[in-house]
Amino acid sequence: MRLQVELEHYRNVLIVRLIGELDHHTADSVRQQMEEAILKGGADHIILSLKDLLFMDSSGLGVILGRYKLLKSRGGKMVVCDVNQAVYRLFELSGLFKILAIYDNERAALTSLEVVS
């Protein structure tokens, strides 16, 4: 299965919706798209919406961790929402939830970043 990446800017937040499988075949493309959107789009924060992410391997974890470090170095935050059970387990095992907050949906994630009017 392929991966579809939807990027949406909302104020100073980049919402990244991943649909499909994030693995070693798709990681470089996701990395590039997210970095471009962060650097050119002026995003201070990222919401990773993973409702439709069916599979992720260690390459995907690397992409997420790298973008987290980029944002943190710029004073921004990354949060995650709509995580399915399989991906949740991977995040849990990898320890990513120690550095990334998780929310039930995009609205709650936006509220946490204090950008909802």
TrEMBL record:
One of its GO terms (biological process) is sporulation resulting in formation of a cellular spore. PROSITE patterns: STAS. Pfam families: STAS. The keyword Disulfide bond does not apply. Signal peptide: none annotated. It comes from the Bacteria. GO terms for molecular function: anti-sigma factor antagonist activity; antisigma factor binding. The keyword Phosphoprotein applies. Residues 3-113 form the STAS domain. Gene3D superfamilies: STAS domain. Keywords: Phosphoprotein, Sporulation. Belongs to the anti-sigma-factor antagonist family. PANTHER family: ANTI-SIGMA FACTOR ANTAGONIST TM_1081-RELATED, ANTI-SIGMA FACTOR ANTAGONIST TM_1081-RELATED-RELATED. In the phosphorylated form it could act as an anti-anti-sigma factor that counteracts SpoIIAB and thus releases sigma f from inhibition. This is Anti-sigma F factor antagonist. It comes from Paenibacillus darwinianus. The lineage of its organism: Bacteria, Bacillati, Bacillota, Bacilli, Bacillales.
